[in-house]
Amino acid sequence: MEKKELHYIHSFADYVDQFIKALIDYSPKLITAVIVLFIGLYAVRLINRLVRKIMVKREIDPTLSTFLADSLLWAMRFLLFVTFISKLGIETSSFVAILGAIGLAVGLSLQGSLSNFAGGVLIILFKPFRVGDSIEAQNVAGTVSEIQIFVTKLITGNNQTIFIPNGILSNGVITNLSLGKNRRANLLFNISYDTNIKTAKEIVMQVMQNHPKVLDNPAPTVVVNLLTDSAIQLAIRPWSKNIDFTVMCSDVLEQCKEAFDAAGIAIQPFTKDSSK
């Protein structure tokens, strides 16, 4: 019994000696890897902070600068991790292959999200609109509140929040109402056939010329847009600054109606032209 116990003790002592020897032999790699890890983490933070400051100094779009800085951060972290495990003596080629297979599987399962991610990258890079712009897209209209990497956030005129996936947004038609400095309205009035067209046009022109928010250049115009079965359709086309557009349209419509009433010009009910 004592011999067996002595054998166990000697075997355990041998295992401990072998472990200590292996640890001593492996310690240079371990120490080197830990040093590389800590220096790398410090360098990654330093480089990322420096890149963000440079982009802010050069006044790069905030959404684009955040996206680029975050992408660079994760790319550097991945490279640091690969360097760390290579310093530990682990074969990196098989590890990278496993990561590639996992990435492919995740990509196939998240095709919709990747489409939105790609759309977000395109929107950020090519800038069809910016934060604060008024746009119309996907049958909704609103002011761009935030451009995220997967969705774009719009605030409508009645203060509703709408999130549009960037995939369909980047592949669809986008009307940017804020891209130009000025904007032209196309207001329609149907008047009776008994009306003198010249007189009606003079009244409309006077209203537009007297309005402080209607621009003189480009000059406002009023033309006969259509002759329907029951009315003469006038197209009233004043220009204004983008910021004044909504108020200007409302004022011109109201003042034209009052001026027509004062002149005894009858306004006909509006009927949509079926040919359009």
Overview features:
three-stranded antiparallel β-sheet; about 55% helix; alpha+beta; about 280 residues; 7 helices; five-stranded antiparallel β-sheet; rod-shaped
Task: Characterize the structure shown.
The chain is 56% helix and 18% strand. It contains seven helices and ten strands. The chain is rod-shaped and about 115 Å long.
Intertermini distance = 106 Å
Over the alpha carbons, how many angstroms does the gyration radius reach? 35 Å
Q: SSE string, helix = H, strand = E?
A: HHHHEEEEHEEEHEEEH
Structural class: alpha+beta
User: How would a crystallographer describe the biggest sheet?
Assistant: 5 strands, antiparallel
Mean pLDDT: 82
Write a compact overview of the structure shown.
The protein is an alpha+beta fold and 276 residues long. It is 56% helix and 18% strand. It has seven helices and ten strands.
Topology:
Layout: H1 2-57, H2 62-87, H3 92-109, H4 111-126, E1 134-137, E2 140-147, E3 151-155, E4 161-165, H5 166-171, E5 174-176, E6 182-184, E7 187-191, H6 197-210, E8 221-227, E9 232-237, E10 239-241, H7 245-263
Antiparallel strand pairs: 1-2, 1-5, 2-3, 3-4, 6-10, 7-9, 8-9
